[in-house]
Amino acid sequence: MNNIDNLEETISKAKEGNQIAFSRLVDMFWNDVYGFQLKRTENENDSEDITIQTFSKAFDKIHTYDDTYVFKTWLIAISKNIHIDLVRKRKRNLLDSRSSVDAISSALDVTPSMEDQLIHEQNLADLLRDIKKLKPHYQSVINLRYFNELSYAEIAAKLNEPINNVKVKLLRAKKLLAEIIKERK
What we know:
This protein is an all-alpha fold. 72% of the residues lie in helices and 0% in strands. The protein has nine helices and no strands. Residues 131-177 form the RNA polymerase sigma factor 70 region 4 type domain.
């Protein structure tokens, strides 16, 4: 099976709500979207936030994706629009305080992934040391999920972020943490 067929199959599964397929899409296109935003913003934090929001929005709108377009182009277009909105919002809210976020309804958590299992198997002292190697916002989401045992909805409420941002951020945090653990072994 070639990469195009594999990508089409993965997109199709993601449209059906398959978390693993969506995770694969994040893995496949994270660097493309992040790199695009890094060139635009010249700021790692903004690039990462916009990339997380891009995949969050793509997750919400995957059913609208038209396969006559290149998937990467669709993601980049979402990313570009998020960046434009962010710039407009910053200009508009320059003097405003942070707006309140609506309450978030509960959501189903996905079954543990390979990264989840690897994280659970680690010695606590080693795991805590490895978590400290992550960026603070990734540390926070990992701690809330695994040590405070909060659901996605509870984490989203605590961080004042949309639930899909939390899902993508946790997905990314788990992947980065799993890479740190594998490097240590």
